[in-house]
Specification:
Helix content: 10-25%
Distance between the termini: 48 Å
Shape: elongated
Strand content: 25-35%
CATH class of the largest domain: Mainly Beta
CATH superfamily of the largest domain: TolB, C-terminal domain
């Protein structure tokens, strides 16, 4: 009898439920459609999810209809709902016509709440629906086993997170995505990968976000794999807030946001055409301006003062370009500058002594003279300075040729009187200091010695012993890993927009790594040793391609060796357009630069040092594109992973990036306009400041 009565009651209850769901009565705040169709993996938690959303509707006054029928996705039917909830959907769940109806629905003001597997991806939802992939801004890649982890609450003001503390401890299946969506979306939650195993996105791993899509609203959470999630009060409140954000009944911040664990602190807003910086052991920051100014920012007074004004040549790329502090600066106060002499065609590397708050220009010791040409525009001067862990000083120099008559390909014009257009006389010349990275050892008396291991031994005919790396076009920013001693630099590359079979490859910018002395190929090769063809500029005919295994320099402008060391390929390279190998580099103008390698020091008491998740990370940046990338190096010191560093922050033509003794990053920004004199040029510090994010806040 009991079973018989239940069999009568159940259909009546279902009819009443459907009647409530279809009624547009004044007592209902809004209506949502829950869609849970799967054609791939089916989550066992789907029934629990539907039941939880129905309970939320009953207790918060909104109607819920649940279906797995794609026929519900018509313009007429979708108009009945204020939001659609994709609950752990998988595979191809809509045909082309249904997809178009849903796109129009969202474009015209509808809402989407996507839960866990509803993210795009080949093994998630609609991996081939381009619109869906673009609208969610990331795709599923992989996940480790279900485990406990700490979730960082990036925005504690949202309707879906305001009930949470800064750190939320919970168990779920944690998704890895192909792209960090920060910078395109408003991130609500992110994962602390140090609290579980299997994360692949590094220090910044968004797991829940929202965004405006034309007139519509999108909310996504990567949480919600387990059945237990739908009985967890904190998750249920997160889900309710997300539904209300998608519907639009609760206000939402759709602006892109930075990782709240980091802050960019402005130190100085007065730089004028800044070039390079260095941070002293006591936290003082020195930087140079291209017109000859040397500035000092004092952390005690938080003020900047001018400590010197050099007279320099400022034709095009020339000027006061490089700065480094002696490894013993705390005791000897020695400052090294790279500048263009005004009275003679040469660049100089000199040592000066800081006396109090003044750089004593009379104390100059000239360590190195680099002859240049100023008959033609002296492009590509280089000028970056960096010390290695062994006290050797590295000096970058550009090829110092006019690149504008070679159609963006190899500037190797061998005609009489055309030496300013031939980088074979500079970069590929073993007897010339231009187009190189030099390595010298400053001595206390102001002289230099040549450390062992440079490219050419002292005394070898037709070579300069100062050369460590040759075959450079414009190694504008260099750095040295203070643990491995490896040299890194950004190579600003040539300008060809596309390859030409009679001339050579398209232009690429490069990030290079030198573990030992070597030849990196310019002007005969670019990127991964893509060869140029020897070109007769008089006859406009092409010859054979140069051989990277045995480069031969027969130019009449070459005063060095004819047979050069084998060319080495770039660590990373990218063209003007999208890179197939490194798509994270984006597209557009190019000016690649290499920053420092960070090594986490657990003994450091600094409260603002970068986190352990960024240990063994090379920072690279692009002056034109305005990004900074975090390149995680693996145990072989090659590229492990690459991710955008702080994509929610704007960087206005970053021109130098250095680590301070406090483990924070110090950044010089050129400012908005290409030609300089920018009012928004600035010196700042990027600090890790996870305010409130500690174990006591987890729940």
């Amino acid at each position: 009898m009991k079973n018989f009565l239940l069999s009568l009651i159940a259909p009546i209850a279902l009819l009443l439920s459907n009647e409530l769901a279809s009624r547009a009565g004044d007592d209902l705040r809004f209506r949502v459609l829950v869609y849970s169709k799967t054609t791939l993996f089916r989550h066992a938690s789907i029934p629990a999810g539907i039941a939880a959303i129905r309970d939320l509707g009953a207790s918060h006054g909104f109607a819920v209809e649940a279906t797995e029928d794609p026929g519900a996705f018509t313009k007429t039917n979708l108009a009945r709902f204020q939001a659609v909830i994709f609950l752990n959907t998988s595979g191809d769940i809509l045909n082309d016509e249904q997809q178009s109806a849903f796109e129009e629905y969202l474009r015209n003001g509808g809402g989407l709440a996507a839960i866990h597997a509803a993210i795009p991806g080949r093994e998630a939802t609609e991996g081939s629906w381009n619109w869906y992939g673009q609208s969610l801004c990331a795709q599923f890649v992989s996940h480790p086993a279900i485990s406990a982890a700490i979730v960082n609450v990036d925005d504690q003001q949202s309707a879906c997170t305001k009930h949470l503390r800064a750190r939320w401890a919970r168990t779920d299946e944690w998704y890895n995505y192909d792209f960090n969506p920060r910078g395109k979306v408003h991130v609500l939650l992110s994962l602390d990968e140090s609290t579980y195993s299997g994360g692949t996105m590094g220090y910044d791993h968004p797991i829940s976000w929202c965004k405006q899509w034309e007139r519509g609203r999108i909310w996504y959470t990567g949480l919600g794999h387990t059945e237990e999630s739908y009985r967890e009060p904190a998750f249920i409140a997160h889900l309710l807030g997300g539904i209300e954000v998608a519907v639009g009944t609760k206000p939402a911040d759709f602006s892109t946001n930075a990782d709240p664990r980091f802050r960019k602190t402005l130190l100085d807003s007065t730089p004028k055409n800044p070039m390079e910086l260095a941070v002293a052991p006591d936290g003082r920051v020195f930087y140079v301006e291209i017109s000859g100014g040397v500035k000092l920012w004092d952390p005690k007074t938080r003020h900047t003062s001018a400590i010197a004004q050099l007279t320099v040549c400022t034709n095009l790329d020339d000027g006061l370009l490089g700065l480094a502090l002696d490894p013993g600066f705390a005791k000897n106060s020695w400052v090294y500058l790279f500048y263009s002499a005004p009275e003679i065609s040469e660049n100089r590397v000199s040592r000066f002594t800081l006396e109090g708050r003044t750089l004593d220009l009379a104390s100059e010791k000239i360590l190195l003279r680099i002859t240049t040409q100023r008959l033609q525009p002296p492009c590509h001067t280089g000028g970056s300075l960096a010390f290695g862990p062994d006290g050797n000083l590295y000096v970058s120099t550009g090829d110092n040729v006019n690149p504008f008559a070679s159609d963006g390909f190899s500037p190797s014009d061998e005609r009489p009187g055309r030496s300013p257009w031939d980088a074979q006389g500079t970069s590929a010349n073993s007897n010339d200091l231009r187009g190189k990275i030099l390595r010298i050892h400053p001595e206390p008396d102001g002289t230099v010695t040549i450390p062992p291991g440079n490219l050419f031994p002292a005394g070898l005919a037709k070579t300069r012993p100062e050369i460590y790396v040759m075959g450079n076009r414009n190694p504008f920013r260099i750095s040295v890993d203070q643990q491995t001693g490896f040299l890194y630099w950004g190579e600003v590359g040539p300008d060809a927009q596309a390859p030409n079979p009679t001339r050579g490859p398209a232009g690429f910018d490069e990030i290079n790594q030198a573990r030992r002395a070597g030849n990196f190929g310019w002007p005969h090769f670019v990127a991964d040793n893509r060869p140029y063809r020897k070109y007769d500029f008089a006859e406009k005919t092409s010859g054979a391609a140069w051989d990277p295994a045995k480069p031969i320099n027969t130019s009449p402008n070459n005063s060095g060796l004819k047979e050069l060391p084998p060319a080495q390929a770039a660590l990373l390279s990218y063209p003007y357009g999208p890179s197939t190998r490194f798509p994270i580099c984006s597209s557009g103008g190019r000016s690649a630069m290499a920053g420092p390698v960070y090594h986490f020091d657990p003994a450091s008491p600094s409260p603002i040092k970068l986190p352990q998740t960024l240990d063994h990370t090379l920072f690279i940046y692009d002056w034109m594109r305005g990004w900074i990338l975090a390149v995680k190096l693996n145990s072989q010191e090659t590229i492990g992973t690459i991710e955008r560093f702080l994509p929610g922050l704007e960087f206005k033509r970053p021109i130098d990036l250095e680590l301070g003794p406090d483990g924070a990053l110090y950044l010089l920004e050129w400012g908005t306009a290409y030609n300089g004199d920018n009012k928004d040029a600035q010196l700042s510090r990027i600090e890790f400041a996870p305010a409130g994010m500690h174990a006591a806040d987890a729940r």
